[in-house]
Prior knowledge:
This protein is an all-beta fold. Helices cover 2% and strands 48% of the residues. Strand 41 and strand 42 form a beta hairpin.
Amino acid sequence: MSVERPIMNRNFGLLVVTVITISFALGTTDADDGLVGHWKLTVDARDSSGADRHAVNHGVRFDDSDGAVFNGLDAWLEVPHSNSISFGRNPFSISVWIHTDEQLDDVLGDVLTCYDAADRRGFTISLMNYAGITNAQSNWRNVLFGIDAGHVDSQWNDCGRPGTNQQVKSLTVFDGNLYAAVWEPAEGATGHVYRYAGGTRWIDCGSPDVCNAISAMAVYDGNLYVGSELYSGGGSALPLSPNKNHGGRVYRYEGGTKWANCGKIADVRSISGLAVFNGKLYAGTGGTGAWRDTPRTRGMYRYDGDGKWTSCGCPDLRVVHLSVYNGDLFGLSYDDGGFFRYDGGTDWTHLGPVPATTQTYGTAVYEGQLLGGTWPTGSVYRYESPQKWTHIGQLGAEKEVMGMAVYNGKLYAGTLPLAHVFRYEGDNRWVSTGRLDTTPDVQYRRAWSMAVFDGKLYCGTLPSGRVLSLEAGRSATYDRTLSAGWHHLAAIKTHDRLQLFIDGNLVSESSDFDPNQYDLTTQQPLKIGFGQHDYFNGRMKDLRIYNRALSKDELSRVQSKVTVRTNPH
């Protein structure tokens, strides 16, 4: 085959030289060998590979050279089931261009799935920006490529105890690392932030405040932000902390053990949640615990830079945790099962109370719908419309559901009083994956905070203060912020591992596996722009699927075939 390559010449400028290569002589292959599906996604959803695997369009709009537009609400493409893209135990490759906006008012959702949730079998490519995992925005524009074949999960693995903490209040992935914000209630102790160093090791990133807890974390404008909290311990039926210093401040991480003070919020003693919405950082301020000597300040505040915070009003009940979904910012409350939508300015709409609930703790977006975890029945409810909620199951005999996260195609939720993590199996069925805290002689144990990192699901506990991880199936994750604009994604399953490429660079590999244990055969359709998490929010073009593992050089040739505009309209 012949390839035209531009070459710079000092005297003559740009020359185009035709280089002749003989594929069989050099042992190379054509980059399109093994192509089993090719959807250009410019003017329609037709397959250009010659296999006639044309997609059924469910509301996707086409914008010529700027690709297919997925609205994040209900638009997706469905390719009918084919054995050729079910793959079984064989290698495969996926190449696609995606575009996301800088400012987001929704989760980013799934790029591509061929997955049977009932059998827990297939593959998925998802963009994770999870808000509402109790206190934290745990993942911000991270990428996951995962496979599963329905066999038994591995056991939860102990990843150590950050410092001397008794509660890992939040976990957040930032700049290739996992961070833990903790409550350290002992005499003379203050809340810290720690960075995971592998095994059971944690690196102390400092204590930015004089209060006993760093509670909330979020990635905003390329930096890690945290909020400080006064937490008594009484809400967990533990001895009250002797440190009664108020929190209510937000800090920006400067590296090492250095933190920049981003201001005190009004007369607030606790920052209970952080989330990014439409390019702004928001803080929930509803205090927790058992002390009654100071008012429990209510309301939400917006960060306007230079230490300035603007009140966004109060829906009459505490706004504790925050969540983002389908163009709206939501506030959860520990008062009367409150669940609210922020309408701008200082206006709020009551969406609850959630039935049989006095406190709502966390949210997740699963299969395109918003879910909330509750107390005191240990149940999960699905939001349908204002004041309309559907019960989707109670988690064993537990009383409280806290952090929830979608990981490799399945929904997980942590509980109290026995600190289980349950996996949702559909039809209101929940199955425990293990008990994470067995501290004796305490009333309550919590599986509280969650994040997806390094191909695994991580969970932080109370009162042991430990972090544990679970690897279900195999995943390769990009643990940094995927910037806005166009990017080329390539997901490759080789003989014994997964590889994730972004813009031609290998950014992640899974742990190795026995390919005989991963039969991905399923009767499910291929879903473009939808999956177990949510509808894709962005643009997409030139999706190619191969029945073999492409080399890095082949990926480069595939990538070079497409031109994208920096700013699509």
